[in-house]
Amino acid sequence: MKIKNAEILCVGTELLLGEVINTNVAYLGRALARLGISVYHTSVVGDNSDRLSIAIKGALEHADLLILTGGLGPTYDDLTKETVASALGLPMVRDEKILSEIEGYFTSIGLPMPENNAKQADIPEGAIALPNKLGTAPGIFIEHNGHVVVLLPGPPAELHPMFDESVFPRLREMSDKILVSHNIHIMGMGESAIEEVLFDLMKNSQNPTLAPYAKESEVRLRVSALARSEEEGEKMCSEMIEKVKNSPVGKHIYALDAERIEKLVVAKLKEKGLTLAVAESCTGGYIGKLLTDIPGASAAFAGGFITYSNEAKINLLGVSPETLQKHSAVSPETAMEMARGARERLGTDLAASVTGEAGPNPDPQTGKPVGTVFLGISSAQETYSVQVKIPPQRNRDYIRNVATNRALREILIFLNEI
Amino acid sequence: MKIKNAEILCVGTELLLGEVINTNVAYLGRALARLGISVYHTSVVGDNSDRLSIAIKGALEHADLLILTGGLGPTYDDLTKETVASALGLPMVRDEKILSEIEGYFTSIGLPMPENNAKQADIPEGAIALPNKLGTAPGIFIEHNGHVVVLLPGPPAELHPMFDESVFPRLREMSDKILVSHNIHIMGMGESAIEEVLFDLMKNSQNPTLAPYAKESEVRLRVSALARSEEEGEKMCSEMIEKVKNSPVGKHIYALDAERIEKLVVAKLKEKGLTLAVAESCTGGYIGKLLTDIPGASAAFAGGFITYSNEAKINLLGVSPETLQKHSAVSPETAMEMARGARERLGTDLAASVTGEAGPNPDPQTGKPVGTVFLGISSAQETYSVQVKIPPQRNRDYIRNVATNRALREILIFLNEI
Lengths: 418, 418
Hints:
2 copies of one chain form a homodimer. By secondary structure, chain A is an alpha/beta fold. Helices cover 41% and strands 25% of the residues of chain A. The longest helix of chain A has 22 residues, at 396-417. The interface between A and B is large, with 101 and 101 residues.
């Protein structure tokens, strides 16, 4: 059968109570979009068999493919499998192979298998069980009466590999379309102004589509083409991208399909054979954390200093007490001395620093309003500072996020210019 | 009117395509749970007026309160407000006060107001406009024909303050119930084993309820009581907590309502008047980032070192080259020298270190499998190391998260024992 559209149904009272942020629906949404399978509706229901049953039947009226997440665990409130089987009119059968795998899992962690885990080996008749590398609940893939119904475990660490390895390849066979997408990144022009210029393309072009998304300090235009092949989709997208480039928006484009900025920084450092150190005050280690998210960062990122207190700035980085006294810790002078100190102490080619007021309350010692941030960049040739102004009504998390992001961007700008 | 149940409807094609993770539904779910307002169903629809209209009408058949998020922006695909007005049979009227606020917003950022922003000043007749401190889209609060319909902007930074300040207080007046919840934290006993012991309470107690959630390295039991007052709810919860304490699960309880561990660490350090430094290798600054998430952390957290390379471990922390040579960077010996070095260099009472293999590929220099992590703790009295073993099939993010979490927990254990 061919799949044209899908619905995602997440099961779990913890999702309704807001105890868990639902990331599965975004993960699955991205994958289905890549396959050109349209998702018009997703929903969440609690661990309640009656309401789940109504939601399953409702979804199957509209969708070729129904993906359910959650409710596959061993406890009495895990009832997705039984409810799906009953809604489809399928009996449950025990799968001895799965049972022995579950027993093996418990043996491997040195525990006896609790009796109620055995029910995880029951699957609807005719279904395919999908292996779970990281837990005991197998997934389920059912093709029945012109529908495909897929059941996946709720924990993302279990869902991601199971979906990628056992579900995506099967769905790929069942879809004859592919969505090709590209992002145009724009700085220095707001969403409304862009729309005034590109209104006709945004409003009237159905395939490919052109849609704006406002982000912190940039606007993204997403170009998406639904095609029969990658080649056809790429061609449709390039034509649209050319139209945007040739419009008055064109000169504000700064990147096409930008990756995570920390990945760009590590790649550019490696490309140029340079090493980096950081000195972080208000960001407290966040820049280092993001850079080391990237496997292999060690080739370019030597390390750094978290200098939250004035004493740490003096003792670890050699910031002069006079500078702190005269200009305060939140100043271009301190930012520059921090960057220079980090670079010299770690013997790197380049160093970046951040110092600022993240709030919630301004520090009387600095006299600077919340949201004031100074970045420092230091190389053997030059050391300079850049100010970032963030509205003071923004909260601490936001200010620290923007400061971190801007520091990574300044490093990238520096690397692109040398 | 009194509100008993609610539905949340999030609008945005970007949510269906998985470009944005939907955190609004969890934020609103938590708030409604506190008010004892039941949410049985939430859903997401794209920027399509017909499907949105069907979803609105469907939701109003079941729910007293409908909260919509997203689609309040200035562009043509922002159509939530118009679709709601039409579904409720209300005409749109221009609010001159909002119009002048939007004009004022653009004046304050030094830009002319684009013409299409004016439509943000249109609201359904009889509705209350809710001020937006951080953007141009006002929220909308409508009481109409026995229903309450609330429209909130999609960006969480705009939604949170608007909901907290303008919506929560109004809903509180309209609900006569309150949900009181507590978490029982359990280590050393699995979810299935706990259920075997507490099956009767979990299955048969309707109010208060008792429900298990498995987390990394712990199980949480959530006790929730729906009551007419806080006092009544607290009493119902304590009775249930006593029953769990007196069961065989009791001896595995390690905390009640544990807060974020970094918050506990900062509070305990302040309480004892002690200072902390960190030395991070595979976590790359993540521990420092989490500690400095807490406002006022500077009183207890002096700072630290990100020593990703062997050179940084030697030069910044004084780890001996012989130790690295003999035991490798991923060893108890290196972890202890890192912690001691950080403590001495920052002059703190206490220091913690992390060194480990986060993957994806093992480092041939250390010869240790992915997932091997050593923590170091150093005070003037003692320096020791703790090993953390994480299954190697876990990914880099997971390993770094667990390493960070366990380091914070070791600091807390140390502080609790001295």
